[in-house]
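Handout, page 2. Input:
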Amino acid sequence: MAQIAFILLCHKDPDAIIQQAERLTAVGDFMAIHFDARANRADYERIRTALQGNPNVTFAKKRIKCGWGEWSLVQATLYAVEAAEEAFPRATHFYMLSGDCMSIKTAEFAHEFLDNRDVDYIESFDFFESDWIKTGIKEERLIYRHFFNERLHKSLFYASMNLQKRFGLAREIPADLQIMIGSQWWCLRRRTVEFIIEFARKRRDVMRFFATTWIPDETFFQTLVRHLVPESEIETRTLTFLMFTDYGMPVTFYNDSYDLLLSQDFLFARKISPEAKELKRRLGALYAAEGVDFQISNEGRSLFKFISGRGRVGRRFAPRFWETESTLGRERELMIVTCKKWHVGKRLLQAIKRHTNLPGIEYMFDEEGTPLPDLGGIQKTLGKRTRHRRALMRMLFDFYNTDRLVICIDPKNMDLMQDFNSDRSRTKLLEVECTFSDDYLLGHAKRIGLAGERTPAETIDRLLPTIRGDVLSESDRIRDAEFEHFFRIRQGDPADMNANALSQFLDIPEKTAFSIAETQHLFSD
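Output:
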């Protein structure tokens, strides 16, 4: 009978990791954990202490700092896989998970499912022939050596790549490999994992090649499995159910998704909202259950598309002139400052404009009176600005004759941020995290009509915790969205720490960023 060794890469929420490990190992399965070395050391020690008595849990022998798009993610996975392969000789399958995943079937169902077919489950499409990569660089991921993280050091990333192009330094792909690409959520048989570990030890040339490719977690395992395993033993699919919105953002599941998730032809799902307490409770209890009959309808993606599409019914037949362009432009960069305290956001924007000469616009999607140039009427009302936001932004880029523009947006406008993030242009997001006194929150309640001068004190006392929770939940939703180019500065943090985030967000020298971070009274109420 199948026994699964779960490979968990994680970097936050130690309580959830402990619960996930206990839940999945309670039925006899196993888990190997790699906890990002960038994360809090105390959190890691807490996890180890809580799970040290569990013989079905092990840890990667080495912790490394992981970065999106980097080889470090593959290396961390290999460390966890090696630890699991050594510690759990009875494991028949190795299943890649994240901390946002939860089982949507019982262990009984999962084991029987894996026993029914002797195959590896991994997306594995031809890198050059498939259209798996929708935007951005493609062959450049492989043929040039990438020493910088595009997310953190954009200018160095592209400068390095362009220098290699200029001097003809493109390299050959290992001749015996057909490069494949696909999702990083896979489930592999033990012998396949053993093949990969042995291959990695022998073929240092291949390891060196992938170590300087870009986003290798989408190509390394996908290529090696296809190289080492007969095609008839590969099922080109993932067993983890995930969906994406029209904006390219992962769909988050909430309490009302339980029946939908159980009816999908998958074993796990991601992402589960941290706020979906009831869904987590029900799914948590499910894995150890026995005798559950699952009615697989697999309508999840089509149902989501139908429901989310209802709001788009009824468009006009003839588009206005500003609706003919649906993208900001591939070469452009939109930098969004999101701050709940508008006066703080405005002060920061003015400091940015003063020190960088970048054009910037205040809360134009939140304040009707925001000064804007005459753009033919599209800018006149909040409704028009929001409905035609991409066209408006494109016209503003043209008006200022720039490819880089800074704007302020209230954190509640997640739909705007997600929409801009899905555009072919490059979108960066800087969250300005402020502290909120009761006096400020009361003023905020009055500004948005939740309270007035005659509101009773007892009502205010009940209202303030709710408003505070709402403000904090907006911040949580932004972080849960996992925007690719996300940065944060905090009230109370030293200027040099905030300067580091500003430097990366704006692509400016640290010295200039420090001058912005030191702006007098930046966070004052």
